[in-house]
Amino acid sequence: METNNIQLELTVSETNTVLAGLGQQPYIKVAELIEKIQQQGASQLKSYDDNSQMANSESSKISVKDGQ
Questions:
Q1: Which string of b and e fits 10-41 if b means at least 16 CB within 10 Å?
Q2: How far is CA 30 from the centre of its chain?
Q3: 8 A C-beta contact, residue 34 and residue 19
Q4: What is the average pLDDT score of the chain?
């Protein structure tokens, strides 16, 4: 198996398009790749959501302080 990695930056919509295309291929050929894409995507989206929630929380704290 090849050990060189590349990084791609795709929107969620683009990633779903890639997954849909892979879904048209024989399962035995693409199952591991689909799982890898889904795991990495879920991890990145969770990280994005966590950071977004932290930013919103900090924004709320600032506005409360400003209002007092």
A1: eeeeebeeeeeeeeeeeeeebeeeeeebeeee
A2: 19
A3: yes
A4: 83
CA distance 44 to 21: 21
Tokens standing for 59? Answer: 């924004």
- Give me the pLDDT at residue 46, please: 85
Alpha-carbon span 31 to 53, nearest angstrom: 33
Name the pTM for this structure: 0.65
In the numeric block, which tokens belong to residue 14? Answer: 């683009």
Answer for the pair 38, 15: CB distance below 8 angstroms, yes or no. no
Tokens of 43: 């991890």
- Where does 1-68 have alpha helices with state H? 12-23, 27-67
Instruction: Yes or no: say if 22 and 30 are a contact pair by the CB < 8 Å rule.
Output: yes
